[in-house]
Amino acid sequence: MNNEWFREKSFHQTHSVGFKLKSILHEEQSEFQNIKVLDTYSVGKLLLLDDKCMVSQADEFVYHEVVSHIPYMCKPIVKNVLIIGGGDCGVVREFARHVDIHSIDLVEIDERVVEVSKKYFPECTQAMDDKRVSLYTQDGIEFIKKKKNHYDIIVIDSTDPEDFALGLFTKQFYKHVHEALVEDGIMINQTENPFLDEFGIKNIYSNMRNTFPIVKSYSAPMLIYPGVFWTFGFSSKKYRPTNIISSKISYMKKLSKDLKWYNTDWHQGAFLLSNLHKRAIDQW
Amino acid sequence: MNNEWFREKSFHQTHSVGFKLKSILHEEQSEFQNIKVLDTYSVGKLLLLDDKCMVSQADEFVYHEVVSHIPYMCKPIVKNVLIIGGGDCGVVREFARHVDIHSIDLVEIDERVVEVSKKYFPECTQAMDDKRVSLYTQDGIEFIKKKKNHYDIIVIDSTDPEDFALGLFTKQFYKHVHEALVEDGIMINQTENPFLDEFGIKNIYSNMRNTFPIVKSYSAPMLIYPGVFWTFGFSSKKYRPTNIISSKISYMKKLSKDLKWYNTDWHQGAFLLSNLHKRAIDQW
């Protein structure tokens, strides 16, 4: 970062995306990481954790809508939801749209991410006052070990598979997620970019398949992430991602007028994969 | 560009994508533009025209496969094909896979782009020796005015709507394309990124709808283009993009094993648009 540009380097420091700066709004070192908020010309406000792009005003809705409404629309009953990571609270906002959900637990290791988001991204944190929402400032890996047969949906809203997020991509962790889910539960996680595959996508999917009987993948563009073309995992005990619950369709048709990305047509199409995507996840 | 990195700035010079350089393989000033070939770590060889990314080894197949096989699969008879622009010849390669096509005309204003591509991107230009292929070193806008009721498919493989490519996005040009097409012909063109919409996507689609009765949009990721999430237009006199010709399906199922991106499932899904994409093209 200089006074004019912030650039995030990826793919072994050989690829970069850059944002021209209006100003640096915030900077601090928390117990866990460096936290910055920038104001940029192309994507508005931009949250960085250890100088990696996490959330921007220009595209936050994509990630938040696609990890929440896809599993919600595939499972008849959704009462209890868990989000691990995701301290910007945007995923909470999306689940909170559904009044049939009883509880939304957010487990974020770094409470400063939540506080900074409340100040600079109030459009993301707006549902944190909802009485169904509980914030746990803990390590998600430890939190989940104590939960059994409880959650309908668990979203792993993690950073890349490195440093303290590495444990969120292991067979052992997926086994604990499986145990924390009800008998027809669904796990959603972010699974990186297949063009610039620094972290081994095949291995992530192999670990998921080791635990879940149904493992599918879909994609959505995240403008601020390296390579933009982003993949997500759908790991399920019972339901398939393209069997949308028919009784929810007319409800979602109305709701999606207020959404910026998600609709049920797009949902169906997102699971119709290109050859590159199929090969990247060994589903060929 | 410095000795270590090439960066393309977009969206009013506020957003950038950068590539760490191995070396600069070629540089020249042609009659029309500056032409460079770089060798990079993240995307391999990379062709620049006036310092804008055009083709890379890492993702050229996406663009070339999605502008060719989509219209081919929607029209029962495809005999004569025209490509305007596209001097890298990758679109020619994809159409040449289909033995039922009689002629493939490529109209590229700058023959130096073709020559440089032959040297540095032989995987793209490999079909230029095919006896069905004709290269016309001319202005596509003038070329098309003389053609009437001849082409089954016309692909506008253009740069951004500025400078000498601006004329490839006008109502007048689309009218000439319409006249050059047979009575059930299809036009395909690149229509920019809706997140970083510098050039007015709504206006491009409005111009297309002014001439064609069926105008649809689809997307595919182009890793080297600004914002990656790329949209394409499907403008048609008769056929709809999701009505794949059933007699071609088993043929394509075999062929697509050799393709890196396209398959008929992905084709169907690519037209199931997100809310953002629908709103960007005024198809809401």
Strand proportion of chain A? 25-35%
Largest interface: A-B, 45 and 45 residues
* Biggest sheet overview of chain A: 7 strands, mixed
| SS element count, helices of chain A | 10
Specify the CATH homologous superfamily of the largest domain in chain A: Vaccinia Virus protein VP39
Content-based structural category of chain A: alpha/beta
Mean pLDDT across all amino acids of chain A:
97
Give the oligomeric state of the chains in this entry, treating copies of one chain as homo and distinct chains as hetero: homodimer
CATH topology heading of the largest domain in chain A: Rossmann fold
Count of domain modules of chain A: 2
From the coordinates shown, what is the CATH architecture of the largest domain in chain A? 3-Layer(aba) Sandwich
Stretches of chain A where pLDDT falls below 50 for ≥5 residues?
Answer: none
What is the 3D form of chain A? globular
Strand runs of chain A, count: 12
Rg from alpha-carbon coordinates of chain A: 18 Å
